[in-house]
């Protein structure tokens, strides 16, 4: 789900854009190939439902060109975003210490 604090940064037709990206991807994760709304085990051995998300490769919600968007499962999306999140946390911590 889109975080409420950044919802305004998404275009009004986001649901249409999302649907087009899912269709392009054949309703599968574009990194690992898992199908949307199927089930798999997570690292803790728990069965979880796969729900595809749409990732902005440049992490910019306003940049909705299809070349910048990928349909990803939660696992792949989190792995893709991890370095960006770490850098953001680092910058936030530095700014708080100044």
Q: What's the structural blueprint in terms of helices and strands?
A:
Blueprint lengths: L13 H11 L14 E3 L5 E3 L3 E4 L12 E4 L1 H23 L2
Antiparallel strand pairs: 1-2, 3-4
Radius of gyration: 15 Å
Order of helices and strands: HEEEEH
List the strand order in the largest sheet. 1-2
Distance between the termini: 33 Å
Largest sheet entry: 2 strands, antiparallel
User: Which consecutive residue ranges, at least 5 long each, have pLDDT under 50?
Assistant: none
Instruction: Work out the helicity level.
Output: 25-40%
Overall mean pLDDT: 94
Structural class: alpha+beta
Principal-axes geometry comes out as: globular
Provide a count of the helices.
2
Oligomeric state of shown chains: single chain
Strands, total number: 4
Strand content: 5-15%
Describe the structure.
The chain is of the alpha+beta class and 98 residues long. It is 35% helix and 14% strand. It is built from 2 helices and 4 strands, in the order H-E-E-E-E-H. The chain has helices at 14-24, 74-96, and strands spanning 39-41, 47-49, 53-56, 69-72. The strands form 2 sheets. Strands 1-2 form a two-stranded antiparallel sheet. A two-stranded antiparallel sheet has the order 3-4. The chain is globular, with a radius of gyration of 15 Å.
């Amino acid at each position: 789900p889109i975080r409420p604090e950044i919802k305004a940064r998404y275009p009004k037709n986001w649901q249409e854009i999302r649907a087009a990206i899912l269709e392009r991807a054949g309703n599968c994760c574009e990194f690992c190939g898992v199908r949307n709304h199927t089930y798999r085990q997570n690292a803790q051995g728990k069965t979880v439902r796969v729900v595809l998300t749409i990732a902005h490769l440049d992490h910019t919600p306003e940049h909705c060109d299809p070349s910048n968007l990928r349909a990803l499962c939660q696992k792949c999306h989190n792995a893709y975003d991890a370095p960006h999140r770490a850098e953001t946390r680092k910058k936030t911590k530095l700014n708080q210490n100044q």
